[in-house]
Amino acid sequence: MVSRVIPVEPFDLVVFGGTGDLAQRKILPGLLRRFTDGQMPPDSRVIAVARSDMDSASFRARVARAIAETVPDSHRDAGSERAFLERIDYVMVDATGEAGWRDLAAALRPDVVRAVYFSVAPALFGPIAEGLHRHEIARADCRIVVEKPFGQDLDSARALNATLAAHFDEKQIYRIDHYLGKETVQNLMAVRFANILFEPLWNAQFVDHVQITVAETVGIEGRAGYYDAAGAMRDMVQNHLMQLLCLIAMEPPYRFDPEAVRDEKLKVIHALDPVAPGDIVRGQYNAGNGQPGYRDECGDPDSLTESYIALKLHISNWRWKGTPFYLRTGKRLRARASEIAVTFKEPPHSIFGEGERWKENTLVIRVQPNEGITLNVMIKEPGPGGMRLVDVPLDMTFAEALGAGGRDIPDAYERLIMDVIRGNQTLFMRGDEVEAAWAWTDPIIAAWQAREDRPQPYEPGSAGPEDALMLVHRDGRRWREISP
What we know:
With 484 residues, the chain is α/β, with parallel strands linked by helices. It has 14 helices and 15 strands. The longest helix is centred in the middle third of the chain and has 26 residues, at 224-249.
């Protein structure tokens, strides 16, 4: 197998919010891995920006501590770390004022790729965008990376897009969703469009249903201020699960091109039917197993925010009409697992007799942990005694299949940041895509708020509320077991 890595040009990456948790635990350690693997040119630099008063040496020491806490010893190389830290500078900037902007402008080079990462609260996007232009930091080829949340509803998403559009062209804006950087998620397109095996079967004629699951074992963990205003629908379904749904359901793009891929994803969102109240189950975890309940953590004994949600969706187009898509996500569940399961219909006639146990073929795409793809097929059970069928998995775990020689699968942030530097927007959301997702989501939230629906309690360590099981059972189907 011959692989080709698209080279990366030297760059200056400015990280606003450089002292924050995301920068310290994901962005900077991810860049270190790319540097160690030789994919970050040695003359590239990272300029961290924050309001804290410190010099570059103090900031490098802080990054070194973060690396020691987040990067396993087996993946560390002292020489590479020293060389990487030498390429990090720090500039103190007041994003809402004038202090530090001239120093930032002076620190940047004119002859390299320039990217700016907004690792800050959305309220600072506007002031930072304005400051970049006022001080002539944002050139016509400058790229900006914007973290979620991309608004709280359709109106705020439109306002946020308008704020960014006032200073940047859409081709300069990279709205990052780390789920799209995961190896398995990208392999969805390879499995579908690089193999004749699946695409002819990828439609309502052969697919019985699709399940998308993102389960977490943790609670809201110090994010009460944000999460209680968002809930599982805004925090997970409107972005992460919606993106997985689009990649599963979209039509083949005319080529692997950023605009072509995003055009097809947008068509899926426009084709989504409204969701009936009976096709939604919301839940909220109780206290148990020595852990506090959701309301204890958020500090509101009357909170109606869901920490779990399950939905049954339909897509009204020729490919998927009549095939249900079941989505679920929640916190404090039995196991941490993210997967997409495409279950195919049974053969129209069995030649093996009515008494023979049958199980549908299911293609399971594991996003995390243990990224990989499994196809469950029926074969003859070995041994004498007649034709007895047994279900077996054809398994391809990426770490085993592609990790020879100690090669690791890059973290999602590593891949996406390098795509920004390359100028590749394929795995980033476009403004109209974000707004279309909110246009579908808002009426669902407004409806349950108008009804004053209360989320159903569920026990921590369970699979979620009982009614979520019935959402699938009443159709004669079952949720896949949540397992690590």
